[in-house]
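sorry to bug you again but im stuck and you know this stuff better than me. below you get a single protein, a line of residues and a line of whole numbers that encode the local backbone shape. mainly i need to know what kind of three dimensional shape the backbone takes. anything you notice is useful, everything is just below:

***
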Amino acid sequence: MAGTDPRPYLTEVDYPCGRDELLRAAAAAGAGDDVLGPLGALPASDYADGDGVWDALGTHEGSTTT
């Protein structure tokens, strides 16, 4: 993902959780479209932690997460 790191918007998430919970938590934390769009495009699976979300976004977007 070449965009915004979503982890600061996911501090209230109880992991593991699915994409819908990630979207709810990020929206409640005030995330913008630059975060919500990529989260919404993730596969509907369970994510173990914020780093797993970041990794999935990098894999999903086909770019590096540096």
Observations:
- The chain has three helices and two strands.
